[in-house]
Amino acid sequence: EPEVTQTPSHQVTQMGQEVILRCVPISNHLYFYWYRQILGQKVEFLVSFYNNEISEKSEIFDDQFSVERPDGSNFTLKIRSTKLEDSAMYFCASSVGSPNYGYTFGSGTRLTVV
Amino acid sequence: GENVEQHPSTLSVQEGDSAVIKCTYSDSASNYFPWYKQELGKGPQLIIDIRSNVGEKKDQRIAVTLNKTAKHFSLHITETQPEDSAVYFCAASGSQGNLIFGKGTKLSVKP
């Protein structure tokens, strides 16, 4: 069964450093998403990406965040200057169409900012 | 915007019993309602979904019901097994083409 692949599985970084989280969506999917889950809390929407541009973003997705699809397969989330409160699980997801066609989530990257 | 409430936050059942998890949503424009199972250290996995033109959907031991008038939907798991133990999230489609998640229910099935 096709999977969404995320790397690394765990990233530890110092406060103020930049991190890049990587995702390889399912190959025939057209919509890509990043969500995050702070420990013990609900999964929260960050951003959606379609046709090589951001289609929607939440209030959480401020200027320190950016996304990119540098080639035909990778989809990245960059956090420019990490803060302690950025520590969370970050999930990438992709879908064939809109959410009504169902998401497939990756296994996540656990980001720990120290 | 859309808000999704989920209850209970924890649920403990004996193996073989049924489990029911309930969610309510606020935006009447929401038309897609998936349920996800999340095991420790893994991403959410879609287990069943329902669209607003359907009232009930069943897949083996799992069923979902939707009441559009009352804006609530429920997950029913029958004949629970220890491997059903996980955190379950309901979600509703949001106006941004995203999903709005509930806070999750930690289900424990005791052998």
Describe the protein:
The complex is a heterodimer of chains A (114) and B (111). Chain A has strands at 5-7, 10-13, 19-24, 31-37, 43-50, 53-57, 65-68, 75-79, 88-95, 104-105, 109-113. Chain A is mostly beta strands. The radius of gyration of chain A is 13 Å and the shape is globular. Chain B is an all-beta fold and 111 residues long. The interface between A and B is medium-sized, with 25 and 25 residues.
Draw up the topology in text.
The complex is a heterodimer of chains A (114) and B (111).
Chain A lengths: L4 E3 L2 E4 L5 E6 L6 E7 L5 E8 L2 E5 L7 E4 L6 E5 L8 E8 L8 E2 L3 E5 L1
Parallel strand pairs in A: 2-11
Antiparallel strand pairs in A: 1-3, 3-8, 4-5, 4-9, 5-6, 7-8, 9-10, 9-11
Chain B lengths: L3 E4 L2 E5 L4 E7 L6 E7 L6 E7 L4 E4 L2 E6 L4 E6 L8 E8 L5 E3 L3 E6 L1
Parallel strand pairs in B: 2-11
Antiparallel strand pairs in B: 1-3, 3-8, 4-5, 4-9, 6-7, 7-8, 9-10, 9-11
Number of strands of chain B: 11
Specify the helix fraction band of chain B.
under 10%
Low-pLDDT segments, ≥5 res of chain B: none
Question: How do the SSEs of chain B run, as a string of H and E?
Answer: EEEEEEEEEEE
How many alpha or pi helices of chain A? Answer: 0
Strand content of chain A: over 45%
Largest interface: A-B, 25 and 25 residues
Principal-axis shape of chain B equals globular
Q: Which structural class do you get from the secondary structure elements of chain A? A: mainly beta
Biggest pleated-sheet summary of chain A: 7 strands, mixed
Rg of chain B (CA only): 13 Å
Name the quaternary structure: heterodimer
Radius of gyration of chain A: 13 Å
Mean of pLDDT of chain B? 94
Q: Identify the overall geometry of chain A.
A: globular
How many H/I helical runs of chain B?
0
Question: What are the low-pLDDT stretches of chain A, counting only 5+ consecutive residues below 50?
Answer: none
